[in-house]
Amino acid sequence: MNMKRKAFASVLLSTMLALTVITGCGKSNESEASMSSPSASPSSSPSASASASASASESPASELSGKVVFWSMWSNAEPQAKVIDEAVADFKVANPNVEVEVKYNGRDINKLLKPALESGQQIDIFEQDPGAALSTLKDHVLKLDDLLAQQAIGSDGKTVKDSIIPSLLDWVKSLAVPAGLEDGYYAIPQQPYAVLFFYNKALFAKAGITAVPTSWEEFLADCELLKQAGIEPITFDDAYRDLFIGGYLGSAMGSDWTDSLVKDKTGEMWKDPIVLQFANDMQNLQAKGYFSKKIAGNKYPAGQQDLALGKTAMYLNGTWLPNEIAATAGPDFQWGSFQFPVVPNGNGKGGFQGLSFGAQGLLMNKNGKNVSAAFELVKYLVGKKAQEGMATKALAIPATVDSTWPAPLAEAEVAFQNAKVNMPWGFGIDNGGDFSTGTVIPTFMELATGKLSPDKYVAKMAEQAKKFYSGK
């Protein structure tokens, strides 16, 4: 699932580390076809009924009863749904008097959920990007602080709170007050993601590159080695153009500065020396042929398909990418990843300390009539068995501590665990709303394709920012 957060930011210490979405839940939900499916009862599915639950055997059958309805963001054909089916089957073994209905909405959940909740339809648990959900569904979300103290499923006596990667929980909690809610936890993060450069290890080896770049200078040197080996170094497409400009400026200055840049009503921040340095570096990438010649016309998912087919070496994306293009890349693709290289002459607030990350989340309806049974199901969905099932079957990052990450994301785990600052989707470059989408990104493309010189880029951005905000 492709996840840039238009809602998500729309979206992996944005998500720290907002990692894998999604397997693929990231930026553009709108750029991928919706996958809607009818309601499904996991207890009747083959994969669910076949699941003989080791985790369910941890406790005797409970006295919980009634009905629980869970709305999922996946379609019933996706690997994530198979893991959910197994978790529900495990839950049913331990809670035989609870009826569970899972509705696999696919990406249509983004437009169906709010009307359904507002109409009073029974939805006890639902999956959403926490950042979007807490803003748009704040009248419907249940505060989970007390429930998080319950014992987790399959985590050696840990509470639910202690079983989840701490940086993810900290991130989710940080979203509450800005959304207009009381401080606390309103979602349990799962299927994390982070934004990283993904690369083809075989192509790096062919070019004689033995270590991933950590500085901008090393990055340029590796691009030259790739070019000399006849390998196209960098690609991206229209769904992820924002990541490249945001990644550079965020690495140099941090996401707070980038946020201020796109919201500066005077246009003066665009005259900062780091912006001219950025423009010169982008011109350099273009002039030396390090950018794919296709970037001007690449429509999602063209760029990532070129990576999967070995036509290009690097692509800046979310940790859902290996799962999203697994069919094209094949089982023998040698995945590698690294953080955006450290950009020189910054302000000390960027670099490797920050990472753009986020996660999908499980949220509960505060008007639900069966909270006890619903949260017990949530515990199975975010339990260690289910989270590690997401890793093995969907190449997603497990949200539980001490869990093994899927092999294609092994290097991403290092970035995720080391990052100290959560950067939003796009490293703040998308936070200007219409100005970001209508001016910042298109003007960047003029620069990246050689249509605009660095000096003219700076002048145009300063002028356009002042013009845009003067009309507000």
Automatic annotation (TrEMBL):
The keyword Protein biosynthesis does not apply. Keywords: Signal. SUPFAM superfamilies: Periplasmic binding protein-like II. Residues 28-57 are annotated as: Disordered. Residues 1-20 form the signal peptide. Residues 31-57 have a biased composition (Low complexity). This is Extracellular solute-binding protein. It comes from Cohnella endophytica.
